[in-house]
Specification:
InterPro entries: PWP1, WD40/YVTN_repeat-like_dom_sf, WD40_PAC1, WD40_repeat_CS, WD40_repeat_dom_sf, WD40_rpt. It contains six helices and 28 strands. It is mostly beta strands. It is globular.
Length: 440
């Protein structure tokens, strides 16, 4: 027996011993060794592909699973038209950003997760959504951000990992800054705000129009299609006041805190200030001084009633909420215009309010006292139908959902975004059961 035959016998014998240990027959193992043909393992098979490759990943059967995973990941990154979105402005460890959340309706209630985030340049103070084409582009999904800077940044929410805003309104003129030899007051772009932007409002009818309110005491109207300021208004008075709870200022002058366009007559704009007044201006009468309502404390926020064209509410630094009827202002701009109702709503500043877009007379309010409350305003006789401490800290913002009208988004000083399904509250279910049935 030659050496080669001896080697093969030894291998078969070894395989037989191993097979017996496993309780298997030696014949099967020996046949398996012969089929492997290990001696010719490295030789190229003339019928194989050799060094050839598939012209595309789609044709490679071994990449099918990978492609499927990539497709699923790409699908997850798409924001669909039917998705409910919440944009949360946040500052944490000196990093300011916008977090874009997707809100899903599940059997267990609202499910909230971050889709992507956008790093912004300064501490955010206010936002406004808009869909106007920017500089001749397509209708999109944009958000305007006011901050501690005098500029307004507009970001495209549909672009992942965006590093620059699509448009910047106003701000410091960097070209002029570089030419300065000595450190002096900053040079601003033409028609820019010169201080922090505290309030923003988008006009849903004239979709290229954005209003802004600033600590420089001015209200500006911007055309986002051209990136230019078309109107500047200075109709709030001048005196210095202290705002003890403010995170941003120790001494605050009569800044303009909030602006709001009417839902029904889009030429009408409200502005609220720390001069203890609300002013209504009509763009169809530019020479008119407007109508003024006096209140007893600094204005925190404004909201038009989406269900009637003649009513709005204002929340104040002393915790009160007041409602007004603009029909009382039709006779004289000098008359004392009294509120339709007054609510002693909170123990500390009522920082935010939101009308329900689908259910008449339902208003939400949030406060520095950490509470969120729901109010029924029927017949100008307000009543509190539910309240909650969402554990979000001082509440800075509340907003009802457009798609699910009884969901309320809540943001506060703890950096927590909470969604309150108010339909689960007994007072809401009892009062608005018909509306809930219609929406379900």
């Amino acid at each position: 027996m030659d050496a080669e035959s001896t080697k093969e016998v030894d291998e078969v014998a070894l395989a037989s011993v191993a097979a017996e240990a496993l309780g298997k027959g030696s014949g099967d193992i020996a046949d398996a060794f012969r089929e492997l043909d290990m001696e010719n393992y490295d030789e190229e098979d003339d019928d194989g592909l050799g060094d050839a490759y598939y012209p595309s990943s789609e044709l490679d059967p071994y990449l099918k699973d990978k492609d499927d995973n990539d497709s699923e990941e790409e699908e997850d990154m798409i924001i669909r038209a039917e998705d409910s979105i919440i944009v949360c402005a946040r500052n944490e460890e000196e990093i300011s950003q916008l977090e874009v959340y997707i809100l899903e309706d599940t059997e267990d209630g609202p499910n909230l997760y971050v889709h992507h985030d956008i790093i912004i340049s300064a501490f955010p103070l206010c936002t406004a959504w808009l869909d106007c084409p920017l500089k001749g582009g397509e209708r999109g999904n944009f958000i305007a951000v006011g901050s501690m800077e005098p500029s307004i940044e507009i970001w495209d929410l549909d672009i992942i990992d965006e590093v620059e805003p699509s448009l910047v309104l106003g701000g410091i003129d960097e070209c002029l800054e570089k030419k300065k030899k000595r450190k002096k007051k900053p040079k601003f772009k033409e028609d820019s705000h010169t201080d922090a932007v505290l309030g923003l409002a988008w006009n849903k009818e004239f979709r290229n129009i954005l209003a802004s309110a600033s600590a420089d005491k001015k209200v500006k109207i911007w055309d986002v299609a051209t990136g230019k300021c078309s109107i500047t208004m200075e109709h709030h008075s001048d005196k210095a006041r202290i705002k003890p709870y403010s995170l941003f200022y120790h001494w605050l002058e009569d800044i303009v805190q909030a602006v709001a366009f009417s839902h029904h007559v889009p030429q009408i704009l409200l502005s609220g200030s720390f001069d203890h007044s609300i002013v209504m201006k009509d763009g169809r009468k530019p020479s008119h001084s407007g109508y003024r309502w006096s209140v007893v404390a600094d204005v925190e926020s404004l909201a038009w009633d989406p269900h009637t064209e003649h009513s709005f509410v204002v929340s104040l630094e002393n915790g009160m909420i007041q409602g007004f009827d603009i029909r009382a202002a039709s006779s004289s701009s000098d008359a004392e215009l009294k509120p339709s109702f007054t609510i002693h709503a909170h123990d500390k500043p009522a920082s935010t309010i939101s009308y329900n877009p689908s259910i008449p007379n339902l208003l939400a309010s949030g406060s520095i006292d950490k509470m969120v409350k729901l109010w029924d305003l029927s017949n100008n006789q307000p009543s509190c139908i539910s309240s909650r401490n969402p554990k979000a800290g001082a509440v800075f913002s509340v907003s009802f959902s457009q798609e699910n009208p009884l969901w309320l988004a809540i943001g506060g000083s703890k950096g927590i975004l909470d969604v309150w399904d108010t339909s689960s509250e007994a007072g809401v279910a009892k009062k608005y059961s018909k509306n809930i049935d219609k929406k379900s």
